[in-house]
Amino acid sequence: MTTKAVSNSPGNTEQNRPPGGGVLWETLRSLLFIFGTAILTTIAVKNSVNPYLEKIWGASHDFWGSLWISIYDLFGRNDFLVHVVGSTVHSILCFVVFNALFLVCDITGHPKWLLKYKVQDGKNQPVDNKKLWSCIRTVAFNLGVISPLFTIAFYAPVCYFGAYHKGDLPTFERILLEFLVFNIIEEIFFYYSHRILHHPKFYARFHKKHHEWTAPIGITSVYCGPLEMVLSNLFPAALGPMIMRSHIFVSWFWFGLVLFSTTLAHGGYHVPFLFSPEAHDYHHKVFNCLFGTLGVLDKLHKTDRPFAGSVNEKRHFVSFSLAPVKDIYPEPLKPGHSKAE
After folding, report:
1. pLDDT per position as a tens digit, 166-196
2. Are 274 and 264 a contacting pair, CB within 8 Å?
3. pLDDT of residue 41
4. What Rg, from alpha-carbon coordinates, does the chain have?
5. DSSP-derived 3-state class of residue 22
6. How many angstroms separate the CA atoms of 90 and 251, rounded?
7. Is 92 helix (H, G, I), strand (E, B) or coil?
8. CA dist list (Å): 84 to 33, 147, 165, 185, 242
9. 317-338 CB burial, b ≥16 within 10 A, e <16
């Protein structure tokens, strides 16, 4: 039995074509099913565990409220400064903190214990300095220039929709609802924008830069051109809080979670108790599949192939074992090779 080789050329695969009109009704129907399931799940969680979570949130609500008042006062209660300068500083701090340990290990090879969780063994060990500095320059430009400019441009629409910077923080139930909507909106807009960037007409000009790293490291999460930074990274994450008219404090929590998630997805280490990077790491290695964040639209459009059924898919879970997942699910033996070899 033979299998067809996976092509890394954007022009040689059906999966790289942007979704056509033939799948629109199927997409709409599936999304309605997803939304319905998500709503029912939220109601079930609300009725079962929410009373306990509400007690925890209620006990800490005064702390977070006081913290926000202090931050708001720090910016002179100026909504524009909080929105632009505060959001920029918050994003940069989160990015640096989340990437620090991974980057130190990529450069120095320490701490040694982290190396056993490397997804692609032997890659970026150590990372190439020239390539790394090129990445750092692009990342600094995106976080220090493109992101603030986007935040400034987004300020008026956000205020128009009713997002707010002052007043009491929302209830725990409201935050859960907003985060549910945020995830759904990001999945939709990231999937389709990302898949369009993989189209042969756009890939070389707008997205190839990001795929220079076939074995990504954490900071490559925002290593891309300005158009991709806005279209695929900033807009899908910022749209949810605008639509939901979120308190800026809740938006900051969401942006922090997005940065944490994308750092892990590109980090190159499958660390126990943290989100799995296996899917997006596989996307960088194979190129022509897995365009979303949650995997829902990849299954719908069948762009989860050839990941589906692979050993990488078996490893794609949050591990609660200190043993590396590549030891739990080792690479299958090649024909003609014994385990001893």
Report:
1. 888 998 889 989 999 999 999 999 999 999 9
2. yes
3. 61
4. 21
5. helix
6. 11
7. helix
8. 37, 9, 12, 22, 14
9. eebeeeebbbeebeeeeeeeee
Tokens (6 digits) for 10: 């954007």
Is the separation of the CB atoms in 147 and 91 below 8 Å? yes
Q: How far apart are CA 3 and CA 6, in angstroms?
A: 9
**Residue 315 has which token pair?**
């490893």
The DSSP 8-state label assigned to residue 245 in this structure reads T
Partners of 164 in the β-ladder? 247
Rounded-to-integer distance, Cα 152 and Cα 318, Å = 37
- Give the three-state DSSP class for 338: coil
Q: Across-strand partners of 118? A: 269
Q: What is the DSSP letter of 218?
A: G
- Cα gap 191→290, rounded to integer Å: 9
DSSP state for residue 275 in the 8-state scheme: -
Residue (of 237, 283, 232) closest to 257 by Cα position: 237
What is the DSSP annotation of 159-172? HHHT-BSSSPPPPH
Sole residue written with tokens 């891309």: 224
Structure tokens at 312: 């990488």
Burial class from Cβ neighbours inside 10 Å (0-12, 13-18, 19+) for residue 106 reads: buried
User: What is the rounded CA–CA span in Å between residue 58 and residue 74?
Assistant: 25
Instruction: Write down the residue that tokens 């079930």 correspond to.
Output: 44
Peptide bond into 241 cis (omega under 30): no
Over the stretch 217-231, which tens digit does the pLDDT of each residue have? 999 999 999 999 999
Read off the DSSP letter of residue 118: B
289 Cβ neighbours under 8 A, 6+ residues apart: 15, 282, 283, 298, 303, 304, 305, 306, 307
- Which residues lie below 8 Å from residue 213, measured CB to CB, with a gap of 6+? 135, 220, 223, 266, 284
Q: What own/partner pairs with CB < 8 Å and gap ≥ 24 does 127-130 have?
A: 127/217
First vs last C-alpha separation in the chain: 24
The pLDDT of residue 339 is 53
